[in-house]
Structure prediction request, 430 residues.
Amino acid sequence: MFPRREFKLYLQPGQEYIWEFDAKVIAYCDPYVITSPNADWILEPHCFQTEELRVRADGHFGYQDCFQWPQAYSQKFEYTVCILNPQKMREQEDPSKTLWELWTPTEDDFNLIDPQSPFGVGKLKHSIYYNLYRLYDSAQEVVDQWKAKREGKKDIVTGMVLHSRHLLNVLKHHPLTFPDVVVYVAELQCFLLDIVAHMLYVNHHQFALTYPDFPCRTNYDLMGCFTEDITTCERLFRAGIPVWLVRSPQFIPQDMNIINVVTVTRPDHIVQKNFVHNGVVTMFPTLHLGCGGTDRHFNSRHTFRAKVLDVSDATSSIVIPQQSAVASSSQTASGGRVQVNRNNNAQNNAKESVYSASASRNKVHNPKSGRDKWAEGDAMIMPLPFPQWVSSFKRVDKDPARVKTGLVDTGYRFPEPALIVSASRPPDLA
Prediction:
């Protein structure tokens, strides 16, 4: 550990402006020194240590969530620097209105289908759903205008819009438990914020990031990011995006221009506790365990459907099947034990599900099975099955002997298609 150096305000003669290698603000955050050439504050970084990415009590990922707190820069997810800053959104929004992008449902917003049922299944109130749909409608309108200019060319944002629509349909039509509703609402909000960030990046900041020129005016409404690379800091500074450069103390020049020495702002307002409903703690699976960057960005956008435990599974572990590269760790429901997967390449096997409820999608079916055998389809465009349904189908009694034959026939069976549509007619039909 290097001894702390006392930073003093210093501005070189003839240099009235701050450039990318100077410090508009500077602060110690052991063991780093953080500077910013274009921001007035310095946030506590939570992207350079090994930390756990999983769903918290409000359905989000806590301060490891790129939609709530700045994360490490990733070239493959460069547009995330344009995510709207939630703190600025709260400051600019009319206090008399509800900020639905950051809203978390409560039990008062949840209507039980049968209050006497022990399962506690219900839906969101219609007025709540309508406000969430308005958010989706505004995001879709921006995307449609952009697609019209590009002659309908499809892009990654098209898949975001389709998935957001799917989440709205689930919230409207499917009975869910209250923890599931919280998670689905948070996932919908993240996808809508992702759409807005992608459009801001494409329409306003992509050109400036690709071809850096004279520094643009800083847009403090954007989330920004942390970086350890000076070249990346220079590009973001010239594009007008808030950036924080993280360095070791020995790499701070003695004659660097310094405007303000500040203290680090910590994310005390962000929820980190586990979800508790009716006195029961819900432990969601760990999606990623490691430092910030591409892997964390990738896993934070993976659909994190709620895992609903059966009574028999209440004391068993929630294990991520096959330790896929999408999720590099597993979480136990009883003790919170985490097992780390050494192979954490998020680009491989991106199609594999991270929940045991969808593990049946990855099973290899017997190719010799008859046409009367049902096989579950496996495609990216198909939504994952609901855990409750999968569990019920596994427990159902499939013994045909339990079915009693009555006076009515069991049903009509369609003939073999080859008897009707065939190149040559069978001998018995000649």
Q: What stands out?
A: Residues 23-331 form one domain. DSSP finds eight helices and 14 strands in the chain. The mean pLDDT is 76. The first strand starts at residue 23 and ends at 29.
